[in-house]
Amino acid sequence: MPPKARALFELTRLHWFPVGCDFMFWPFGWAFLSAAYRLALPVNEVVKTTLFFALLGTLVHSAGCVLNDILDCDIDRKVERSEGRPIASGVVTRTEALVLLAVLVAALFYLFSTCGTKAFTLGVIAFPVCITTYPLMKRWMNWPSLFLGFSSSWAVPGTWVATTDQYNWGIILNIAIASCCWNCIYDTIYACQDKKDDEKAGVKSLAVHLGKAIRPVLTLFDATFFVCLLWAGYLNDQRLPFYMMSVLAPFLLCLWHIWSFDHNDPRDCWKKFTAGRHGGAMVCAGLIVDHHFKLSSLAG
Known about the structure:
Layout: H1 3-11, H2 21-39, H3 43-76, H4 94-113, H5 117-131, H6 134-140, H7 144-153, H8 155-164, H9 169-191, H10 195-201, H11 206-210, H12 214-235, H13 240-260, H14 266-299
Helix pairs in contact: 2-3, 2-8, 2-9, 2-14, 3-4, 5-7, 5-8, 6-7, 7-9, 8-9, 9-12, 9-14, 12-13, 13-14
């Protein structure tokens, strides 16, 4: 691959795939699979639409990363882990990055347009409001990871309404809050890699702000994830596989990550961050198994 193409590819973080992209997919995946269960959609439609939302989540993540690097290139030069990023190192210019961002956003809006009027409207409103403002939050607030969780969770109502054409707000809000907490937890663990450099550069983060209270606070987020997903399952008439695989197992895995990771060791923070995908996948797996049993009972 030519050096310039490789640099642009790295700008999207696709060289890390599926790391990062998976966390953006969870709000789409959890909402769609919950809606698919509610409607008892056939397996072929579930597979096809899940792949569609996986592509959508990947493009949203890539666009967010490009925008983040455009806005943060001066900060990135002050942080050891990010000083070699394409824009910060000068390999890619801001103009080139803006062209790439425009291509990604155009692709996103085309995909949004295929999801129906309600979902498209949500996408048009939420994408610029949430995704474009997140990179700036680390300058203004101590809780940018929580804002990231909120920003990614806008996918939940859009996905739900694209699938059901209804606003079941009890289910939507509980899945969205669970998703927000999940992404906040693992983004905070991720941010612990850069605590020392962030303090020097004046960058705000939960990792810096919480200090020794990081484990109790993240445990509170994990408990909120558990309660909200539990309640969403109740409202959606889910069965035992969901509660065991999608609620209890991820909750316990996340709890173990929170209390076992060394927040002063960047390598261990990265290890626990990437391991978070297993919990997100457990939520999807429980929904898929529950869906299978529901279809079987309807067929029998």
